[in-house]
Amino acid sequence: MSRSPRTRQSASRKRPQDESSATAEQELIGTASHQTLAGAPLVGVRGADLAGSAATLLKGVVKSPLQAGRHLGDYLKALGGILDGTSTLEPPPKDKRFADPAWQSNPFLRALLQSYLAGREELERFIDSTDLAPLEKNRARFVASLLADALAPSNSPLTNPAALRKLVDTGGMSLARGLRHFTRDLLHNRGLPTQVDSSPFTLGENIASARGEVVFRNEMFELLQFAPTTGTVYGRPLVMSPPQINKYYAIDLSPEKSLVRWIQDSGVNLFVISWRNPTREHRDWGLSDYALCLDQAVEVARSITGSPDVNMWGSCSGGITLAAYLGWLAARGEGHKVANTCWAVCVLDMPSALDDTTLGLFTSPAALRAAKASSRRKGVLSGQDMARMFAWMRPNDLIWNYWVNNYLLGNSPPAFDILAWNNDTTRLPAQLHADYLDLVQQNPYSNPGSLEIAGEAIDMSRVQVGAYVVGGTTDHITPWQGCYRTARLFGADATYVLSNAGHLQSLVNPPGNPRSFYYAAPAREDDPQTWLQNAGERQSGSWWPHWRTWIQARSGDSRPAPKKLGSRKYPPLCPAPGTYVREH
What secondary structure letter does DSSP report for 191? Predict the structure, then answer.
């Protein structure tokens, strides 16, 4: 529909600051979308662990006073160069905090920025020069980065040029709005800036709106069957195991980015588990209980479709549960129930989830014991607590960005479906949290017999299934190298796909993004880097069409699509997205 001439004219006269504001909002959305909370097993970091790292930094000063003095002198020399105008210090080109031209054109702001950069560099050099152990150095670097990020001049209303301009342009209204936002967050968000305006999104209407029915419900989960949009469907259904830490509808956001709708359009009969959001009374639900839930879901899907077996999909921690279930089936001689599997951003080799990650700095045995004791006392691990700790792992992206946007500029947080989903957190039962943390120490999927599920010892070498595994090049939660090792657990014929995206974007990756690409090849190399070198040319676009071809070839013969969902034994209980997804 075309606009009226008046509308077109007003649009063409959009002010530059409006365009700049829209661009800034898109950058904010993009940055935050790459830092979504997700179901990694490493959910045991506490505030006390961070405080201990601060003590490590002070320990470095005490142990190396001469180095500290020398670097202080170097910092003072750098300040001299800044004052006489000879300093060449510049922020990294990708540091968007200092992209405003005023940081270079204004002599005061330029000197302030260079002083900040000099201090940060000397602190990093001092830590490198200390006699601290390697792990202590890494923890000290982390604390130093937290301190440097907090003290950035871009975070101050008196020295942020964009905030100062907006203060003048709005006659002080931006400051008033920022104060209102700050007060609201202080009272209702435990002092952290709000990341998203969730009010435009309604479950079942413009988010989680794919057509389906709840066909089974027990106290732990609902099973959703989604209606095919094709005249025929494949005989072998697909059963999805989503993370327990998030709600399932990351795969059913807005219609244009819904993986559920893509699967519906693929002629695949899809069943998705929607986990209940547990409370303290469910504190004893553990990994065994969740794995057995998968067996119930499989039995329902087999009964409704008449298929002797199913394909399965596990995302992140939902994949950890799926692996436990497959090991349980193999131990009981029932592996024939599952023919093929898909694994999205899922690390089953637990040390791989620790390598080169910030969370890996804090997974000492003492920290894990304390984390288990804490959730045991409370009965659950709160999703809000997880989100807060996760935010402090990446403060520039998840705290200071919003500090500037919400408080200094007085803008409202953006309305975006991925962020709304990310804000809709869930809880973990204390026992499941403890089981996750035990996985870190036991690494049971690579060490047969170290994990039992419902009395059965798990040995993944006995699991014989086809496998399609997806990782993301910039995934900070489940590194792609770790995801590759998941593929290796299922043999050289497993297909590994590496997408140029982060944790959630590796999954929510619909066709149409011109910047998307991926690599796909069998997991025949021991080393992930060697695999990448030999994976062939990169493929343009989304990996979804590649997966569609893979799953259709493994889903059996076609048959007429069912006119109704469910069956006489399992009649529809209510429309998707169901009731459990609405619990807070």
Answer: T
The tokens describing 160, both together, are 């942020």
pLDDT tens-digit map of 100-151: 999 999 999 999 999 999 999 999 999 999 888 888 888 888 889 999 999 9
> Checking phi first, is residue 46 left (phi over 0); if not, alpha (psi -120 to 50) or beta?
beta
Measured between alpha carbons, how far is 486 from 481 in angstroms, rounded to an integer? 9
Q: What are phi and psi of 240, to 5 degrees?
A: -105, 135
Q: Over 213-229, what HEC string results?
A: EEEEECCCEEEEEECCC
Residues in the chain: 584
The distance of Cα 476 from the centroid of its chain, to the nearest Å, equals: 8
Cis peptide before 577 (omega within 30 of 0): yes
Are the CB atoms for 341 and 311 separated by under 8 Å? Answer: yes
| CA proximity to 521, closest of 496, 558, 546, 500 | 496
Pairwise CA distance, residues 584 & 323, whole Å: 28
pLDDT band at 392 (very low <50, low <70, confident <90, very high): confident
Task: Report the distance separating Cα 262 and Cα 252, nearest Å.
Answer: 10
Asked whether the beta carbons of 31 and 401 are under 8 A apart, the reply is yes
Establish whether 483 is a catalytic residue.
Answer: no
Geometric angle at alpha carbon 214, from 228 and 274, rounded to 5°: 100
What is the three-state SS of 378-447? HCEECHHHHHHHHHHHCHHHHHHHHHHHHHHCCCCCCCCHHHHHHHCCCCEEHHHHHHHHHHHHHCCCCC
Pick the catalytic residue from 293, 316, 346, 483: 316
For residue 551, the surrounding DSSP H or E stretch is: helix 544-552
Half-sphere exposure of 218 (CA within 13 A, CB side): 11
What's the CA gap between 321 and 243, in Å, rounded? Answer: 8
- Beta carbons within 8 Å of 43's beta carbon, 6+ residues apart: 245, 371, 381, 386, 428, 433, 436, 437
Residue 455 CB partners (closer than 8 Å, separation 6+): none
Helix axes 47-63, 134-150, angle to 10 degrees: 110
Q: Nearest-CA neighbor of 311 among 271, 351, 273?
A: 271
Q: How far is CA 416 from CA 53, 126, 197, in A?
A: 35, 41, 7
Which stretches of 332-396 are DSSP H helices? Answer: 350-354, 365-378, 383-393, 395
pLDDT tens-digit map of 458-504? 999 999 999 999 999 988 888 899 999 999 999 999 999 999 998 88
The CA radius of gyration of the chain, in Å to the nearest whole number, is 26
Q: Are 210 and 275 in contact (CB under 8 A)?
A: no
Residue the block writes with tokens 């400051």: 175
